[in-house]
């Protein structure tokens, strides 16, 4: 009898353990289901449009990870479960306008719609060497933001101070009231897809974000340079303007460094172009107006111009950081021909080149 009681007690304990395990398992399952459902809900209850680009042949795992990183979905891990359970692993390449008030299912469905790509967006190519006022004009043609609004923002001290706090490559050097456009030099030339209803600030942050990618790539070189970051950007803008071919940029950079090293005026005609600004129509105007009174004019003032004279690309920035060594102190570009750059070591050699290619 005692043995039977012990067996019954043992069985009860087993049942209790099993019941407890079932309850724990049930609670775990319910918890996972609730977490799963919550993870698929929208990131925000408020509507906010954001753009998202999917590259050709990009994997679903990569897309889901970026969607989470960019704050469009709550969880890439739970989104992967959703994709498996609902056969939702179909996406199209392109640029999409998504909304943070959409749940994961809506986001994935939209990314599977090829017709949705580029909706409400404007694709704008900003070529290397473009001026800020030209960038503003191009953007205003394709978006709801006006040229005047952009240029005003790019000179707005309150906004610029906020950007200085946000980006390591900016400092108070840009807060110079003598500048035509205070963000000139930092509006990185690239092909962009902007929401047509983007604000001037959102557009500007995109441009600065692209510059920041280049800055972070070359950060150690910027820090090692004898010139400040702002001076490198100024020099890169001159190099970009002077040399139409990438291979010339490094030699041109070397010539400028040679002149700076011996305190020789840079005498760069492209700085005259920027000094002329609205009165500049052809490269020849820059050759014949070296006497214009402007802090940008390197014929009238030693050293670098007061600020950047356009928005340089990656190669020009690289050239400003890594000049090619030579004995050259002079160069000219054949502005009436194919733009070939000719170099000289002496003023006599330089004068002969000017007579041959520029005195027409």
Automatic annotation (TrEMBL):
Which Pfam families does this entry report, sorted A to Z?
YceG
The record ties this protein, via InterPro entries, to:
MLTG-like
Query: Could you tell me where this protein is found in the cell?
Result: Cell membrane
Q: Which EC class, in a word?
A: lyase
Q: Which gene encodes it?
A: mltG
Among PROSITE patterns, the record links this protein to: PROKAR_LIPOPROTEIN
Q: Which UniProt keywords apply?
A: Cell membrane, Cell wall biogenesis/degradation, Lyase, Membrane, Transmembrane, Transmembrane helix
Residues marked Important for catalytic activity (site): 242
Q: What is the lineage of its organism?
A: Bacteria, Bacillati, Bacillota, Erysipelotrichia, Erysipelotrichales
Identify this protein by name: Endolytic murein transglycosylase
Chemical reaction(s) catalysed: a peptidoglycan chain = a peptidoglycan chain with N-acetyl-1,6-anhydromuramyl-[peptide] at the reducing end + a peptidoglycan chain with N-acetylglucosamine at the non-reducing end
Similarity remark: Belongs to the transglycosylase MltG family.
Q: Which residues form a coiled coil?
A: none
């Amino acid at each position: 009898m005692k043995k039977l009681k012990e067996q019954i007690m043992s069985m009860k304990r087993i049942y209790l353990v099993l019941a407890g395990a079932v309850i724990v398992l049930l609670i775990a399952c319910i918890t996972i289901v609730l977490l799963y459902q919550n993870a698929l809900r929208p990131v925000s209850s408020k509507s906010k449009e954001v753009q998202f680009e999917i590259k050709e042949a990009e994997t679903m795992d990569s897309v889901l990870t970026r969607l989470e990183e960019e704050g469009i979905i709550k969880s890439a891990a739970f989104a992967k479960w959703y994709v498996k359970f609902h056969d939702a692993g179909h996406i199209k390449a392109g640029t999409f306008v998504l909304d943070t008030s959409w749940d994961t299912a809506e986001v994935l469905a939209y990314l599977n719609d090829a017709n949705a790509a580029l909706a409400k967006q404007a694709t704008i190519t900003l070529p290397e060497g473009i001026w800020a006022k030209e960038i503003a004009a191009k953007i205003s043609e394709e978006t709801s933001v006006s040229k005047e609004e952009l240029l005003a923002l790019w000179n707005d001290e309150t906004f610029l101070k906020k950007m200085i706090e946000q980006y390591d490559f900016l400092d108070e050097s840009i807060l110079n009231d003598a500048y035509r456009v205070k963000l000139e030099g930092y509006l990185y030339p690239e092909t962009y897809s902007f929401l047509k209803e983007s604000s001037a600030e959102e557009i500007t942050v995109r441009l600065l974000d692209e510059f920041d990618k280049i800055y972070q790539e070359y950060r150690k070189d910027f820090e090692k340079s004898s010139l400040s970051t702002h001076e490198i950007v100024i020099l890169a803008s001159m190099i970009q303007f002077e040399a139409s071919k990438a291979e010339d940029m490094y030699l041109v950079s070397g010539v400028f460094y040679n002149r700076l090293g011996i305190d020789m005026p840079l005498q760069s005609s492209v700085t005259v172009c920027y000094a002329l600004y609205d009165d500049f129509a052809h490269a020849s105007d820059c050759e014949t107006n070296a006497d214009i009174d402007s802090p940008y004019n390197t014929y009238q003032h030693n050293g670098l111009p007061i600020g950047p004279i356009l928005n340089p690309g990656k190669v020009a920035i690289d050239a400003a950081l890594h000049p090619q060594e030579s004995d050259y102190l002079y160069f000219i570009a054949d502005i009436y021909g194919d733009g070939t750059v000719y170099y000289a070591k002496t003023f006599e050699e330089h004068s002969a080149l000017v007579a041959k290619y520029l005195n027409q």
